[in-house]
Design a protein that fits this description.
By secondary structure, this protein is mostly beta strands. The chain folds into two domains: 122 residues, Immunoglobulins (Immunoglobulin-like, Sandwich); 128 residues, Immunoglobulin-like (Sandwich), CATH 2.60.40. The protein is 4% helix and 54% strand. The strands form four sheets. Strands 4, 6, 7, 9, 11 and 12 form a six-stranded mixed beta sheet that branches. The N terminus is likely disordered.
């Protein structure tokens, strides 16, 4: 069952904003923003800047690389060699430096330029990785031998979105009770919700789940799940619920993609027995 309640969109959007971070952080190191979104006309070269900060007390050295990525049906990223996927923009990118050395407390800016091909007509994506490598103690040079220690790695998503694409909507496709999973004391009840992005642009959203015991009126609010869907992508969202839940429940899922979209609501009646 699927319905829309436009009046509720504003309420849930207010809760959505703080949960999408604009900075990727590791131990003593941060990269901002965590996502670059390029736009422009075919044939143009456009540029943006990434800021890297060393908040530790030691010198940090990083190498960079670019890879393609897609998402599987559960939203997990799968990585590929650069320029090998139809949705890749890896070969369009140029960085002002491919290695970085930051002193304690130092900030550096890295320029990322994108040369937009003349035939670009769809969203493309890639990932820039920053991989910390250990420095040689005597010379201060980066160790590049076999067995080098990788201490930390972070990625920045890079998207290109042409003008004039159809935004589309997110929609519920399925709402399923998958029974009990796990063994012994680790058992949980699993609910899975299938969501589709029918548009031509990327969408971030939150899925909220509320359970109400229809016999007692007791309400159970579950931690929300954040999702990111590529164009025309479908993803399953999993909610693990306490095994102790028993009785007849009304499960209500709310799909919030922000103020530009209607709030979507799906409901399902479930009976949990001891």
């Amino acid at each position: 069952m699927r319905s829309q309640k436009i009046l509720l969109t504003i309420i849930y959007t207010l809760c959505l904003v703080p949960l999408f971070s604009h900075k990727t952080m590791g131990q003593g190191f941060s990269v901002s923003p965590s996502r670059l979104s390029f736009t422009g006309n075919p044939g143009e070269t456009v540029a943006q800047t990434i800021t890297l900060s060393n908040t530790s007390q030691t010198i940090l050295t990083f190498s960079t690389r670019i890879q393609d990525f897609d998402r599987d049906s559960l939203g997990n990223k799968i990585y590929y060699d650069p320029g090998t996927r139809p949705s890749s923009n890896a070969k369009w990118l140029t960085m002002s430096s491919t290695s970085l050395r930051l002193l304690p407390g130092e900030n550096k800016k890295l320029n990322i330029s994108m040369a937009i091909p003349a035939d670009s007509k769809k969203i493309t994506q890639s990932m820039i990785f920053f991989t910390q490598v250990k420095e040689a103690a005597a010379t201060g040079s980066v160790v590049k031998s076999i067995g080098v220690s990788i201490l930390m790695e972070m990625g920045v998503q890079v998207y290109f979105t042409p003008n004039g694409l159809n935004a589309g909507e997110l929609e519920f496709l399925a709402f399923e009770d998958r029974g009990t999973v796990g063994t012994g004391k680790e058992q949980m009840r699993k609910l899975m919700i299938k969501i589709h992005n029918n548009g031509e642009i990327n969408k971030d959203a939150f899925v909220r789940l509320e359970l109400t015991n229809k016999e007692t009126g007791e309400e159970h609010k579950i931690d929300p799940a954040s999702i990111a869907l590529l164009p025309n992508a479908t993803q399953w969202v999993t909610f693990n619920l306490p095994i102790k839940l028993t009785g007849k429940f009304l499960a209500v899922a709310l799909l919030d993609a922000g103020a530009a979209y209607d709030l979507k609501i799906a409901e399902k009646e479930i009976i949990y027995r001891p």
